[in-house]
């Protein structure tokens, strides 16, 4: 049995037994927050529980390393839609210790792509077209600094409401302990 067939079989049972009813909510976050966090598997259930979040409490955007890399990319678009259309009032950027993005080696990733059949010559074409793979796939060496950069990227976006607090936190992936790196309320008080 494939993973897909296992998922579909379980899904039919889930729907038939109306297990979805305990998760009923609206598209608007009850706690009026939007969270950008890492896609790390350790955080899937741990982070919401560590923050006392239930289904429907928050908009959660997952991205490798919780990095907001482009001011007009999909993560920033999702934040802005959450704020202006879906009634969120605060933004939380939450990185974590022991993140895979802290040990990214672009050359190794390219090697793995080639091993899986991507033509090595394509990388020359991308470079010629202005795509710097090292820049595009970059990670970070310090999660605290990475969170600060993402907070600044969001806070200083030209379409951002300056009255919205943008918080930065770092989670411990084993315990869920959260360290405040940037208190978004303090930044609003300064303006």
Automatic annotation (TrEMBL):
Keywords: Metal-binding, Zinc. It is an enzyme of class 4 (lyase). Its EC number is 4.2.1.1. Coiled coil: none annotated. InterPro entries: Carbonic_anhydrase (IPR001765), Carbonic_anhydrase_sf (IPR036874). SMART domains: Pro_CA. It catalyses: hydrogencarbonate + H(+) = CO2 + H2O. It comes from the Bacteria. Its cofactor is Zn(2+). Pfam families: Pro_CA. Belongs to the beta-class carbonic anhydrase family. PANTHER family: CARBON DISULFIDE HYDROLASE, CARBONIC ANHYDRASE. This is carbonic anhydrase. It comes from Sporosarcina koreensis. The lineage of its organism: Bacteria, Bacillati, Bacillota, Bacilli, Bacillales.
